[in-house]
């Protein structure tokens, strides 16, 4: 796979698939620019080589064609501020205007194309659409790891129509860091899985059982295990059709010598809201009418003890409903323990989505080894699946 640093972009128009799917507020201002900042090294390298840059991305989930709130024109100003130069904008990602603007682009210039998903052809992986996009540039770069698990026109199909295809620096870093927890990870190796459902994470959990020393399970998915073991979990989240699976995982962990840690207690609430009435309860005896919304103090203590001495940590999914401040303590405590393990020389990978949001909102983004930008893509890569966006670059 050719990477950015293998190539001299002088005089070339680079068509870059980026992930600018950023959150916007009601005034269409970017409220978290992590994904924009992530692309700076790739774009800067190309501009510094004397190339020009055509940026293409999706934003949100437009249903049928253009929608103001999903227009990438809202990113022109933030991009101009980031790169310290004017950014041209094509208000259609294909067609005459985009073609003319792309053709007249000079070295050091940036052109941003309108939202790819204003065309249903993008998600369908339409070849004719991909070919039109490909014609805008001379070199194709994919730096959108977050959509690499989708065979969309701009992420995979387009590669058939370009003579040069190159892996961007974000994509490369994501793959390198995921590899560190898949092969030859330093031990003790601890995986922390949380979030709402086991069903989303079952494949990765099974794969991790062959690699890790400790598997910590927290968040909503933990209650299915307690229910499966015959406990009373009150109104806590449960996947009734996954009880057997939960028991099988407990047995498999034992067979493989993996230390499976389930949260022994929870902070339980009588309603799904921040100011609900709460109490502490053991997870196998949650009172009727109550639901577990965060791991409890005994669970925190046990989890932290294991995490802080780990040499490799992979974390995906919060320990509770961390969006509500009263139920954020478990997630916060785990985040601090991951930071401590990292400070002691361990390698820590935070796998996208909510765990990345939690680590970033606590200001720990720089205190862990790597925060992945791709939730679903990272999970699929770790499950051992071939990502179409990566395969297309090979
Ligand atoms: P996921 O996308 O599967 O990683 O799930 C993340 C979501 O799980 C977050 O929005 C959390 O609020 C939610 N979550 C975590 N723990 C619980 C819980 N005990 N009960 C309900 N939802 C939870």
TrEMBL record:
GO terms for cellular component: cytosol. It catalyses: (2R)-3-phosphoglycerate + ATP = (2R)-3-phospho-glyceroyl phosphate + ADP. It is found in: Cytoplasm. It comes from Flexibacter flexilis DSM 6793. Substrate binds at residues 19-21, 35, 58-61, 117, 150. One of its GO terms (biological process) is glycolytic process. GO terms for molecular function: ADP binding; ATP binding; phosphoglycerate kinase activity. InterPro entries: Phosphoglycerate_kinase (IPR001576), Phosphoglycerate_kinase_N (IPR015824), Phosphoglycerate_kinase_sf (IPR036043). HAMAP family: Phosphoglyc_kinase. Belongs to the phosphoglycerate kinase family. Keywords: ATP-binding, Cytoplasm, Glycolysis, Kinase, Nucleotide-binding, Transferase. Its EC number is 2.7.2.3. Pathway: Carbohydrate degradation; glycolysis; pyruvate from D-glyceraldehyde 3-phosphate: step 2/5. The lineage of its organism: Bacteria, Pseudomonadati, Bacteroidota, Cytophagia, Cytophagales. The gene is pgk. ATP binds at residues 201, 292, 323, 352-355. It holds the Pfam family PGK. This is Phosphoglycerate kinase. (2R)-3-phosphoglycerate binds at residues 35, 117, 150. Monomer.
């Amino acid at each position: 796979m050719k990477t950015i640093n293998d190539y001299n972009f002088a005089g070339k128009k680079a068509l870059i698939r980026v992930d600018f799917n950023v959150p916007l507020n009601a005034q269409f201002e970017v409220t978290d620019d992590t994904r924009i900042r992530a692309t700076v090294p790739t774009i800067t390298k190309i501009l510094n080589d004397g190339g020009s840059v055509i940026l293409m991305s999706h934003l949100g989930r437009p249903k049928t064609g253009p929608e103001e709130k999903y227009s990438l024109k809202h990113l022109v100003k933030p991009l101009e501020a980031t790169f310290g130069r004017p950014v041209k904008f094509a208000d259609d990602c294909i067609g005459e205007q985009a073609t003319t603007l792309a053709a007249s682009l000079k070295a050091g210039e940036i052109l941003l194309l309108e939202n790819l998903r204003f065309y249903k052809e993008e998600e369908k992986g339409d070849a004719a659409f991909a070919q039109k996009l490909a014609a805008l540039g001379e070199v194709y770069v994919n730096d959108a790891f977050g959509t690499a698990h989708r065979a969309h026109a701009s992420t995979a199909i387009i590669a058939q129509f370009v003579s040069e295809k190159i892996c961007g620096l974000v994509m490369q870093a994501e793959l390198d860091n995921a590899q560190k927890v898949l092969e030859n990870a330093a031990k003790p190796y601890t995986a922390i899985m949380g979030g709402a459902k086991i069903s989303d994470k079952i494949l990765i959990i099974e794969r991790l059982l062959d690699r890790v020393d400790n598997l910590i399970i927290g968040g909503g998915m933990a209650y299915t295990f307690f229910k499966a073991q015959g406990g009373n979990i009150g109104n806590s989240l449960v996947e009734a059709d996954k009880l057997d699976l939960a028991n099988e995982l407990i047995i498999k962990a034992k067979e493989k010598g993996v230390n499976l840690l389930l949260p022994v207690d929870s902070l339980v609430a009588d309603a799904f809201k921040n100011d609900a009435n709460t109490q502490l309860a053991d997870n196998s005896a949650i009172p009727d009418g109550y639901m577990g919304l965060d791991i409890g103090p005994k669970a925190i203590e046990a989890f932290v003890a294991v995490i802080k001495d780990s040499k490799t940590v992979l974390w995906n999914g919060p320990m509770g409903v961390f969006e509500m401040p009263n139920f954020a303590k478990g997630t916060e405590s785990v985040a601090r323990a991951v930071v401590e393990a990292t400070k002691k020389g361990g390698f820590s990978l935070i796998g996208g989505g909510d765990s990345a949001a939690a680590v970033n909102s606590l200001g720990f983004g720089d205190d862990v080894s790597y925060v992945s930008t791709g939730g679903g893509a990272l999970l699929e890569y770790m499950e051992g699946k071939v990502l179409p966006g990566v395969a297309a670059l090979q």
